[in-house]
Amino acid sequence: MSYPSLAACVADLERTGQLVRIDAEIDPHLELAAIQRRAFAAGAPALLFTRVRGSRFPLLGNLFGTRERLHFLFRHTLRAVEGVLAAKADPADALRHPLRSLRLLPALRHMLPRLRRGGPVPVLSSSCRVADLPRLVSWPQDGGPFITLPLVYSEDPARPGPDASNLGMYRVQLSGNDYAEDEVGLHYQIHRGIGVHHAAALERGRPLPVHVFVGGPPALTVAAVMPLPEGLSELRFAGLLGGRRVDLARAPGLPLPVLAEADFCLSGYILPTCKPEGPFGDHVGYYSLRHDFPVLRVTAVHHRPDAIWPFTVVGRPPQEDTVFGDFIHELTGALVPQVFEGIREVHAVDAAGVHPLLLAVGSERYTPYEAHRRPRELLTAALHLLGTTQTALAKYVLLAAHEDAPGLSARDVMGFLRHLLERTHFDRDLHFLTRTTTDTLDYTGLGLNEGSRLIWAAAGEPVRRLGNGPDDLGDLPALPEGFGDVRCAGPGLFVLRGPRHDLGPNEPDPRMEALADALARWPRREAFPLVTVCDDAAFCAASPSNWLWVTFTRSDPATDVYGVHGRTHARHWGCEAPLVLDARRKPFHAPPLEEAPETVRRVETLAGPGGPLHGLLG
Predict the structure, then answer these.
(1) pTM value?
(2) Is 405 exposed, middle or buried, given 0-12, 13-18 or 19+ CB atoms closer than 10 A?
(3) Is 132 a catalytic residue?
(4) Is 179 found in the same domain as 66?
(5) Residue 97 in contact with residue 224, Cβ under 8 Å?
(6) Peptide bond into 318 cis (omega under 30)
(7) Which domain-ending residue is among 458, 492, 526?
(8) In angstroms, rounded to a whole number, what is the distance separating the alpha carbons of residues 244 and 238?
(9) Which CATH number is 58's domain given?
(10) Which helix or strand (DSSP H or E) is residue 92 part of?
(11) Is 608 exposed, middle or buried (0-12, 13-18, 19+ CB in 10 A)?
(12) Burial zone of 168 (CB within 10 Å; 0-12 exposed, 13-18 middle, 19+ buried)
């Protein structure tokens, strides 16, 4: 089914038993978000909250909460989407199978947005103020209510029109801090499409017109988060995925076209000055702190008469955006070799916060005549990954050669790590990029948008056999004061508690050097070549997801990587096993996300026997 609106999607889900209406009054301050987190974890249906305190609009949660529901929403278009993307990945295949390609023609017609000329425009039917919009606050330290599923539309001032437009999902703060009644915060991160448009507007000395849409056919939301190949705009992809052309409309007084079937539209322009935005709980599992970001002066707010406000919650993975990530991989996996030469598969690891850890399986074909394979082509491929698309934000880029294990998959995270650790030569296979731009949400480096990267590429035959558990640790040497509680987190993975970190950014810790010196006397150090030092070893080693989250979200490669007999030669740093990562929380890190106890108690009551959420939240 192709949904013309979000209301049509809601009706379809309700008719098929995949949506539940919640008519009890729910507080949008923390309570609604806590419900959403539990609904996602429980694999609950979509939830339509009809009585949200202080809001005249119903709120829709958990719409994309399961892979099965996402497939249901696009059940009639997925094959066409896969066919079009596959054809883009391998154009020669379209020539080899012309009849199969002809079957894609009806779908291709949906990729052309159309401009309505006359007639009612649903999203412009009614108007309200910014203050009338739902005030959803997700975490206790959030700086104010935010739009969690915004569709931010802008056009290139140099090439106005939908063909050079950008539809992205950037955080929009509705109130709080120093915002006036007609202002909202627009937090867009590094390497986002709207940044190019904003820069072009600033060069011309003109404000950048922007629309912030909320709701509309669900294909628009998926399109806004898709890393699309060059030449495929979000509007075109939304038409392809949604099975119908995206309807645009012009309105007097609005400099940009509107998405006619959206539920809400905030129209305005970016001011020339910035204001503090945040803090806000984010998808790495920590708060993004208060910083200056652009401000959108809102000139009008419109909405449909039957408007529904969809929302989600971001936090430590897995959350609802995890389902988006899996769906994106499913659709775009075939494009990876076309976008990144020499790469067969990539996986931005959700459990590690997505951008902190990128795994890649590549080819190693540069010197097939050498007796022993070593990383050569993999290093070129790593630079491709760090040079374009959202993979450019990766902090740790780990690469392995397909030729060493044809069945190896980057989706098998722990299997991939085992393969890599078995083959790594720590004196040659680590390559650092220092003082570079990094993900806006990562606070482990020198400051906002600045830190380091590590390319870790291994190829060839195994050079060590990994230990499999605590019984394999053998006799540990005496550890420096403050280190202890030794644990095993997996094959070759050694975890221990370290003393409290009390240094500033970019300051190596002499106590970590002392630990590396002590581990040089450990007879089993080759069997456990990766050591994580953390604040709570029991928590870190309790599960692979805990280990991944702690290890890669709390360390900066240039400052926090140590190793036995670490040394620099010709500007290249190397060491012997084990490599030691300092994943303790530092004083300058953003705080992790924690729920308010009173909110937890209220939600437990709502989900208890006789409560309106009983049986829905697990």
Answers:
(1) 0.93
(2) middle
(3) no
(4) yes
(5) no
(6) yes
(7) 458
(8) 8
(9) 2.30.110.10
(10) helix 91-96
(11) exposed
(12) buried
In the block, residue with structure tokens 């801090």: 177
Q: How far apart are CA 490 and CA 466, in angstroms?
A: 10
Question: What are the tokens at 454?
Answer: 């590590």
Q: Structural domain of residue 443, as residue ranges?
A: 336-458
Q: Compute φ and ψ for 471, nearest 5 degrees.
A: -70, -15
- Among candidate residues 282, 404, 429, 560, the one labeled active-site is 282
Are 277 and 389 found together in one domain?
A: no
pLDDT confidence bin for 618, thresholds 50/70/90: confident
Nearest to 17 by CA among 69, 92, 74, 95: 69
Closest CA to 143 of 124, 171, 115: 171
Q: Do 173 and 278 meet the contact criterion of CB atoms below 8 Å apart?
A: yes
Query: Which residue do the tokens 């630079």 mark?
Result: 383
- As separate numbers, helices (DSSP H) first and strands (DSSP E) second, the chain gives 19, 28
Residue with tokens 């296979």: 429
Q: What is the DSSP string of 477-499?
A: PPPPTT-EEEEEEETTEEEEE-P
Total residue length of the chain:
618
Q: What is the mean pLDDT of residues 428-457?
A: 93
Q: What is the pLDDT of residues 295-338, one digit of tens each?
A: 999 999 999 999 999 999 999 999 999 999 899 888 888 888 88
